[in-house]
Automatic annotation (TrEMBL):
Source organism superkingdom: Eukaryota
Family the entry assigns: Belongs to the NSE2 family.
Keywords: Metal-binding, Nucleus, Transferase, Ubl conjugation pathway, Zinc, Zinc-finger
The keyword Oxidoreductase belongs to this UniProt entry's keyword annotation: no
This protein's record includes keyword Lipid biosynthesis: no
Domain SP-RING-type: 201-294
Xref: InterPro entries: Nse2(Mms21), Znf_MIZ, Znf_RING/FYVE/PHD
Name of this protein: SP-RING-type domain-containing protein
Compositionally biased spans, kind Acidic residues: 28-38, 294-311
Sequence ranges of Basic and acidic residues compositional bias: 279-293
Comp. bias regions, Polar residues: 47-57
PROSITE patterns associated with the record: ZF_SP_RING
Length: 311
């Protein structure tokens, strides 16, 4: 908080106005507003007894949950941006040292999201208990009793334990890997140092680097208007998948996801444009083109256009 010397606080400086107490300074009010925007105020959680019949208790808890969910979606947007920054660094120089810092930001964002998810879980538990007739004589301390052990447990985990099975981290690592490698990305544990408690779970399932495929499973060429199914997570070119859903509907068949082995039945409302994926597909095409050009420069033969990225 900025320290501000005003005439009110310096009685020598002015003749009259000295009655405003520092407590109600505008800075303090401003700060309260900021905290409120995050959906987490003392007022939401003032010490008081609440039960199912307490006026607005459940709606208020719900509002808080919704605000936390909004924060989570902002964090997820941030994760995308951090990933893109790392990709750009890796593209400028393989294993660029600053990538470590960017990766740390990525971890921090994952942690924040996890902690918020826990808070939401605790609020959900409290709401369910209220509905079941439970009364909380001190909602704030009940909340803390429920949430602090969960948070402490999570924060005490090693990086490897926290992120080894994280889909986002696997995606982060694969995206970085493919900038300078054409082989499959190794399992992510290779980037996650082992903590003291990790010995025993060495053989656990480890999310392998998934090689992202930028070809639409329907058109078999690189994505155009990359679109993701919320049901199964598979990706397609936008027009191709919408056509598929339309023609299935016309012939009264279920619109099955065209990815081999996937049994999801899709509706148009399950489809969402995925500009971040499209951007990566475009970058992939650009890098492929650059590699090709480099190869051709080494050759004396006439370059034969291989324009698979021009679809
Ligand atoms: Zn699918």
């Amino acid at each position: 908080m900025p320290i501000r010397i005003t005439s009110e606080e310096a009685p020598e400086a002015g003749p009259s106005r000295r009655s405003v107490p520092a407590r109600s300074s505008p800075e303090l009010d401003g700060e309260d507003d900021m905290i409120e925007e995050e959906g987490w105020t003392k007022e939401t959680f003032e010490n008081r007894s609440i039960s199912k019949s307490t006026h607005s208790a459940i709606p208020q808890l719900r509002t808080t949950m919704d605000k936390l969910k909004e924060v989570i979606s902002r964090i997820e947007e941030g994760l995308e941006i951090v990933k893109e920054t790392a990709i750009a660094l890796e593209d400028s120089q393989q294993d660029e040292p600053a990538i470590d810092e960017v990766e740390n930001s990525f971890f921090k964002a994952l942690d924040q999201r996890e902690l918020l998810t826990m808070k939401i879980g605790v609020l959900e538990d409290i709401i369910n208990q209220l509905r079941a007739g439970e009364e909380y004589s001190n909602i704030e301390s009940s909340y803390e009793q429920l949430s602090i052990p969960r948070e402490t447990e999570y924060l005490g985990k090693s990086k490897r334990a926290k992120y080894k099975n994280s889909k986002e981290y696997a995606d982060f690592r694969s995206a970085l890997w493919e900038v300078n490698h054409s082989t499959a990305c190794p399992p992510v544990s290779q980037w996650l140092e082992k903590g003291p408690d990790d010995e025993s779970d060495d053989d656990d399932f480890d999310v392998g680097g998934v090689t992202q495929n930028y070809r639409c499973p329907i058109t078999l060429v690189l994505f155009e208007d990359a679109t993701t199914s919320n049901k199964c997570g598979h990706n397609y070119s936008g027009e191709a998948i919408r056509d598929l859903v339309d023609s299935a509907r016309k012939s009264r068949r279920p619109a099955k996801c065209p990815v081999t082995g996937c049994s999801a039945v899709l509706d148009k409302t399950d489809l969402k444009a995925n500009p971040a994926l499209q951007k990566r597909a475009d970058e992939f095409a650009r890098r492929e083109k650059r590699r090709e050009d480099e190869r051709e420069e080494g050759d004396d033969t006439i370059a034969i256009e291989d324009d698979e990225e021009d679809y």
